[in-house]
Amino acid sequence: MRIDFDPETTSSPDFYRLLTATVVPRPIAWVSTLSADGVANVAPHSFYTVSSAAPPIVQFTSVGTKDSLRNAVETGEFVVNFASESQFAEINDSATDFPPEEGEFAAVGIAQEPSALVKPPRVAGSPVAIECRLHSTVGFGVSTVVFGRVLRIAIDEAVLVDGHPEITRLRPLARLGRNEWGTVGDLLDQGRIRHAEWREGVRTPKGDRS
After folding, report:
1. Count of CB atoms within 10 A of residue 100's CB?
2. Topology adopted by domain 12-199
């Protein structure tokens, strides 16, 4: 038996908790920005995905008017840093609601490095940095979706295998419900099945790579 929840009759906080506990796992955009006053900010956002491959565009959502949103709109630039398991403590600490004049890089002690094409710095220890120019924003109630045109992806060669980012080396973090976080578990490696193979009954999985 299912229990139905209606967003019209369920409080916004309760419905938020339902959504974030069931739309899982969610990748994390560890977004670094630079304020108009030059304060370097970095914060995690778990409403994050690829919007388009050609042109390359990524998106993250700011729930409320957070520094990442304000800075990206004011300066037109941001960097999405890969959230890896090894930096769990720093990522969680950077979610603290520091005031705009207090940057997370300095407050938390996160090492930074210059970006190639944008002014906001990259997280030095992150294996991947996606440098973006602001494309547009779309508002939904108290939330704002930020779209960024990807200008460059910088990848640490240590996570590459034959030129491809290897998931077991990236070790991504993901957000779940409540205060829960997820890491990479068992991996399933199975390509898409062509229709001709489907008709022939070729549907044997390759198995996992754990």
Report:
1. 13
2. Pnp Oxidase; Chain A (2.30.110)
